[in-house]
Amino acid sequence: MNLSCSFLNIVIVLAFTTSSGKKFHRLTVHCVKKYFLLFVLNLLPIFHTNTFTNPFSDSTLQEGDIVFRRKRSAINCDSSCFWPKSSDGLVKVPVNVSTEFCKTWIAEAMQEFTTLTCVQFINRTTETNYISVVPGESCWSHFGKIGGMQQVGLMKTGCMSKGAIQHEMNHALGFLHEQSRSDRDNYVKIMWEYVIAGEQGNFGKVNSNNLGLPYDYSSVMHYGANDFSNTSGKATIVPIPDPSVPIGQREGLSNLDVAKINKLYNCCSNVLHKPNDTFSSVNYPSSYPDNSNCLWLIRIPQHQIFLQFDAFDLQPSPDCTSDYIRVYDGSSRNSSVLLDKLCGMGSLPSLVASRNVMLVEFVSDEATAATGFQASYSQGEDSASFTELGDISNFCLANIHVQN
Ligand SMILES: *[C@@H]1O[C@H](CO)[C@@H](O)[C@H](O)[C@H]1NC(C)=O
Ligand SMILES: *[C@@H]1O[C@H](CO)[C@@H](O)[C@H](O)[C@H]1NC(C)=O
Ligand SMILES: *[C@@H]1O[C@H](CO)[C@@H](O)[C@H](O)[C@H]1NC(C)=O
Ligand SMILES: *[C@@H]1O[C@H](CO)[C@@H](O)[C@H](O)[C@H]1NC(C)=O
Ligand SMILES: *[C@@H]1O[C@H](CO)[C@@H](O)[C@H](O)[C@H]1NC(C)=O
Ligand SMILES: [Zn+2]
Questions:
Q1: Residue 295 and residue 332 in contact, taking contact as beta carbons nearer than 8 Å
Q2: Quick one: which residues bind Zn(2+) (predicted)?
Q3: I need a labelling partner for 293 at 20 to 30 A (CA). Which of 11, 101, 121, 312 fits?
Q4: What is the per-residue pLDDT across 198-215, written as a single tens digit (0 to 9) for each?
Q5: Binding-site residue set for Zn(2+)
Q6: pLDDT at 21 exceeding the cut of 70
Q7: From the CA of 163, which ligand is nearest?
Q8: 276 C-alpha vs ligand 4 centroid, how far in Å?
Q9: SS3 for 325?
Q10: Pick from 272, 275, 268: which is nearest to 364 by CA?
Q11: What confidence tens digit (pLDDT) does each residue in 378-393 have?
């Protein structure tokens, strides 16, 4: 299965570069019908430029040997090519930025992911899988994680806007172009008569996983109206029904770009850093989703953390094996457990962390949801005065464990 899909993958790439848009489309759908889109297209390098240079003139690619890279990647590629989530719920993507760039500018583009999603671009130290941002004659990226070092090419004069950098990083996270979505014909019209000969493959449509989220004209992943046009003043992409809707912004991630990253990576996780705050399960007080695994890392500057559940309603099950809450006295799942698996309904007394860090984990299985929980925390005022509450976790468990 992997092999046949890898083979089709190569076919797709050839179609991308040499065939008409129609042919590209047909081949893509054939593979996608059988296999999960992101896996299938994983090895596809995605090219685009702000100018009309041939992307394959990029020297890094000629030296890199595309076929070899694909073969190597096919071996390394697992069932999906997402970047993995670490135990704190964050998706850490190591990046090494070439010294030839103005690093602060690229860091600023990446910081927006860190602030708004659970994807965190971190400086690579010794990680095996990482992104190497290199100067290129075009702007390009692989699709998803390919395993090992993977390059993102940025043109020093051509794609240095925040959104253009984010666009390439987003490809590496597993996103395709917005106008290649399966439903794009409802939102844009491709003006084939103005597409530069040979570049039609850039306007292919794929059987995409749209994540249940709307088409986004304002996405950084959307092409601009005049991209790949061979006639000045003639658009290649026209929004419908209103052709004046702006497309192709590269200012920064749109709200929907952020929502899509969070959805693709199941980011229900958050870092909470205010001295006090309230948080709740997804959709609260409506039912929480199935198969979620969310983490709230509470990390305040100092003082112990008091946590209180204002509402608690999780699907009950023996030993809370289905849906549960667990609270850790520290910053990771390796930290000591303050409150072990908890489910059912009821009211809970406060929990207190021994330090200024606490991790709340919420897991739901594939069946039967309930309304979930709402919790709030505040900081202690005197770090010496809480030792008497040390046994509270046992009390909580005894009190509300499995009410059915
Ligand atoms: C990564 O390294 C650069 C220096 O190369 C530094 O300015 C930046 O703060 C570092 N970022 C993180 C997240 O550690
Ligand atoms: C980052 O890339 C440079 C080459 O651009 C290389 O010399 C350096 O070793 C790399 N550092 C890491 C941590 O990958
Ligand atoms: C633009 O491209 C189309 C199709 O690729 C071609 O038919 C047309 O002649 C081209 N126009 C110009 C001005 O090059
Ligand atoms: C929460 O913190 C804010 C300041 O961030 C403060 O004004 C407010 O009184 C605090 N509320 C509680 C309940 O501690
Ligand atoms: C947590 O423990 C596992 C083994 O139980 C270990 O592999 C992992 O590195 C630890 N993580 C942290 C953040 O300490
Ligand atoms: Zn792109």
A1: no
A2: 167, 171, 177
A3: 121
A4: 988 889 888 888 888 999
A5: 167, 171, 177
A6: no
A7: 6
A8: 6
A9: strand
A10: 268
A11: 998 754 333 333 333 3
